[in-house]
Amino acid sequence: MLKDILEKYDDCFKEARADSTNHTLSGVAIMGTRFSKNGYEYSSNALDSLTHLAEGSKVFLNHPSKSEYKERDGVRDVRDFAGVFSGVKRSGDKVYGNLKVRESFWPLFKDIASMSPRGVGMSINSQAKVHKDVSGKESVVDIVRLRSCDLVASAATVDSLWESHRNIFESARGVDVQEATQRFRNIINGVGTTINTKDIEEAKSKFRGTCGIKAVKKESKEDAKDRFRRAVRG
Question: How far apart are CA 37 and CA 10, in angstroms?
């Protein structure tokens, strides 16, 4: 089956080298591992397809919001266009490329690359062929379309919140609504942003209703993760 996938890799600038004269970051990691935070395993064929498709791919700042994507019929705002990848190659499970950055965006990209802050990285916006085995585990067997590679702050995503704070689900049983709600509020305040454009009170309310007063009984981490997504995204 085909799926739209947003896949982040935070350590994209770890091995990058900056060339200020040519406004280029070489050795930027587009994908750093075949095992993703979203729970997918990428096949060698999928990594090869990503390597091919990423050559000449456009880089934008941030993913478009749902409303922006709908209003613009999927066309990205040229004002967010930051650069282009070239010289893309694969080394083991990693896919690297050289990022030519627009002059007006160079100070931003150079600063981020030199700081390499946790939670900021490249995110591929793709359409992929996904296979689900009898146990329910999903693997990406091919990437058929790469819309863009976006520089994002992953702290504002559901997946990164889950990865950092999934113990909430494992300890939610017996926690009263007020305490569970406060935990979620602390998570959001801790990353300094709401999830996407959700209002914090709305997110808090959904967390309360879905997670705060329910015992997490015989529930796998993947099921809890899916429930967390539904709670926040509605």
Answer: 11
